[in-house]
Amino acid sequence: MALTNNILGQLDGRRKGVVIDFLRSLDLITCSILPDWKLKEPEDKNLPKPIIAITKANLSDLVLPRGLWRGPDMSNIYITDSEFTSADLSDVDLSKSILMSSWFKNVSFKKSNLSGCDFRSSVFIDVDLEGADLTNANLEGAIVFPEHLRKVKSLDGCLMFDGTVYDSQKPFDEQVLLK
Fold this sequence. Notes:
Helices cover 17% and strands 7% of the residues. It is α/β, with parallel strands linked by helices. The protein has one domain: E3 ubiquitin-protein ligase SopA (Pectate Lyase C-like, 3 Solenoid), CATH 2.160.20.80. A three-stranded parallel β-sheet has the order 3-4-5, with no helix packed on it. It is globular. The mean pLDDT is 88.
């Protein structure tokens, strides 16, 4: 972990993206989340899941490599306690990923699939969530401004920062504004 973080800290945003993409392609930073938001144990008990846990990483200016037809698939990744400043995560599939206790400042999540993501205790400042899908995501304890959440594609089933589940049948302001 320390070597990975050391390498990431020395790279520019595009190269950080290449390293993250490489680690994801080898399933070294992938994981599975159980319904109670805990990590699923791997089939092979001798292997940890994720094999490489990226924590406390500086992922500022992160730009992930794009495919010809769509954004990258970064679903089921495990990156915690990390800083994503000025990162471009637009049109990225981050579904069912664990990104908890992270700092997101000036980050674009435009049209990203964030469904089922665990963002517990994360901080969102000046983020672009336009068209992002936060269906069944976990924002418990997170700091995120209502004006950013107004632009998302879906909050259905999202566990909000106060521990309540978002209900699309109720007015937005009753559920999202701080009480």
